[in-house]
Amino acid sequence: MTVITDTLPTHPDRVTRETAVDFIIELFRHIGDRDYIGEAVSQREHGIQCAVVADQLENRDSLTAAALLHDIGHFLHAYEEDCAEAGIDSRHEDCGADFLARFFPPEVSEPVRLHVDAKRYLCAVEPSYFDRLSPASIRSLELQGGPLQGKELERFAANPHLADAVILRRCDEGAKVKDLRTPSIESYRPMLEGLLKP
Q1: Which domain holds residue 60?
Q2: What domain count does the chain have?
Q3: Could you tell me if residue 195 is inside a domain?
Q4: What distance in Å separates the CA atoms of residue 76 and residue 86, rounded to the nearest whole number?
Q5: Which of 97, 128, 129, 166 would give a disulfide with 122, using CB separation of 3.0 to 4.6 Å?
Q6: How far apart (Å, rounded) are the C-alpha atoms in residues 119 and 40?
Q7: Does any domain span residue 102?
Q8: How far apart are CA 62 and CA 74, in angstroms?
Q9: pLDDT tens digits, 96-141
Q10: What is the CATH number of the domain that holds 15?
């Protein structure tokens, strides 16, 4: 298996509060041009587009940062890039949220952790939401367990970060526009530095 962390500028476990923002920006620069799991945009383009949409909708730094970083787990997990095609759910949401929680408050890390289940939630409570999913997102939905049901649905609906996770998810679906002009990753540095935990 190719371990993605071997291609990073430094190992995630060695990142500190002082180097966290530099590390994140280098991730986007270093490996952000990777295909985004069958979508028409790269992983960097998707993250930045998602941040732009979140900023336009809510104009809250914590949600914009969560949108920007919601798929950072794709850069950090130890699976091959095409693991979904092999039927493996990388649980990128947990990998990314665990990393972010070391440096940022829950308002940033928890919507990241919940953005996959937010898709599953929306497919359960808004059946028409499924029609908005791209083919790649439909494939990943199957791996992730399909629409939430029963106790899983009840637990998710009671989560204090539900509202932000749902907003993030809606931004996610709208952030797959080919050749859209977006800001640079560097332009998000002041926002990220301002959100670091003391």
Answers
A1: 4-176
A2: 1
A3: no
A4: 18
A5: 129
A6: 20
A7: yes
A8: 20
A9: 999 999 999 999 999 999 999 999 999 999 989 999 888 878 888 8
A10: 1.10.3210.10
